[in-house]
Amino acid sequence: MRRRKSSERGEGNVGCIFWALALGLAALIAWKMVPVKLNTAELYDFMEEQAKFAANTPPEQIAKGILGKAQMLGLPLTKEQVKVERIGDSIRMEASYTVPIEFPGYTYNWSFSHKIDRPIFIF
């Protein structure tokens, strides 16, 4: 009869369980945070696009467009958190907000601040 080596006993289950839990936690974090990051990046891209073509648009209308886009993306942005101003031949936009991300037993408040300062090109 052959004897088993001590390394073949199958006692490595604790390490496997640990790594499975770590992988599950990483997947949960990614599941919750990646969509928020994508939505905030899309809002920033929208703000940059608005700044490119801001020559004939009043700042109030740009701010309304930013708020509408944030609402469409499900971001908690209010009128007081959006500032759009035209100074000379440039436009400045700012949107600061916090997105609460809820995990089991913990809520992470992820803060974002988008600032754009661009010259206005008149065609």
Describe how the helices and strands are arranged.
Blueprint: H1 13-52, H2 59-73, E1 82-87, E2 90-103, E3 106-119
Antiparallel strand pairs: 1-2, 2-3
Sheet with most strands: 3 strands, antiparallel
Principal-axes geometry comes out as elongated
Q: Give unreliable regions as ranges.
A: none
Class by SSE composition = alpha+beta
Q: How big a fraction of the residues is strand?
A: 25-35%
Average pLDDT taken over every residue: 89
Number of DSSP E strands: 3
What is the H-and-E element order? Answer: HHEEE
Could you tell me the radius of gyration in angstroms? 24 Å
Strand order of the largest sheet: 1-2-3
Please report the distance between the alpha carbons of the first and last residues: 90 Å
Work out the helix count.
Answer: 2
- Helical percent range? 40-55%
